[in-house]
Amino acid sequence: MEQRARVEITEAQRIVVKVGTSTLTHQNGKMNLARMDRLALAISELMNGDREVILVSSGAIGVGMGKFNLTRRPLGMGMKQALAAVGQCELMNIYSRLFATYNHTVAQILLTKTDVDDDLRRKNVMNTFKSLMEFGVLPIVNENDSVSVDEIKSMMMFGDNDTLSAVVAKLVSADLLIILSDIDGLYDSNPKENKESKLISVVERLDDSIRECAGGAGTKRGTGGMVTKLHAAEIATKAGVNMIIANGSDPMILLDILEGKDIGTLFIRQ
Ligand code: GLU
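A: This is the predicted complex of the input protein with glutamic acid.
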């Protein structure tokens, strides 16, 4: 099973890559430009090798916080929406410039849950992805934080970009979803608390014993943690998409993953 999945990974044509806020920003909330540049380089290389890539990028709220020198995520929805609106602009501006240096064009797609739940809207979104990829453009996706309203939150929002990335992977029938995080993968216990904890390299079946390995952790700037990543793995693998969680501290790791190297945690598709 693992052998087959490794071969599928090296042959993956359509890849969704997700990066979180903690990968894209420094602890003070400012953008980690060196890392974003390496990300742009790695993804450009994949695209130059005729692979189709979709980037799901967090960071709107985090970058907005950095812009206003806030060190904690605000609790009020209005404030979060305003920060997301400011931060998303900054983020796309930088992505657009970085990818341009490697001769690639980017496009912004902001989604809410209603866009994929509704048949007509979903079809429209799928068509947009298809056309962009035909043009060789890199779609950069984020949740449309500035239109999501608190009262109807659970109905309208994905809530986190791990889930969003899996939904997108399913929507575009991706061959592979790679979630880049600030941790090497899924451990059998929380590595921040237990020095003996071991990295799980392959998950063939996502059962309760695996769910028990995930704590609720996340950072002050992001929202993720292992729980949302396992949720994403559930959606992706059920939709027939292999998924890998790996450390994004050097995004060039993407190229090693696509060479079939045993990196991070691989969740094998069902
Ligand atoms: N959409 C949020 C942002 O761009 C991030 C959500 C997440 O990190 O899961 O700040």
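The CA atoms of residues 21 and 59 lie 4 Å apart. The domain at 2-267 is CATH 3.40.1160.10 (Carbamate kinase).
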